[in-house]
Amino acid sequence: MSTESLVLRVAGRPVGRYVTRPELAPALSPRPYLHPVTTLAGTAVTELSPADHLHHLGVGVAVPDVEGHNFWGGRTYVRDRGPTELDNHGAQRHSAFQLRDPDGFVEELRWVAAGAELLRERRTVAATELTDTAWALDFTFSLTNTTSAPLSIGSPATNGRPGAAYGGFFWRARKEAEPPVVFTADAEGEEAAHGTRAAWLALAGAGWTLVFAGATDRTRRDPWFVRTSEYPGVGSSLAHEERLPVPAGETVVRRVVTVVADGRLDRDGAAALVRKAVSP
Question: Is the pTM above the cut of 0.85?
Answer without folding.
Answer: yes
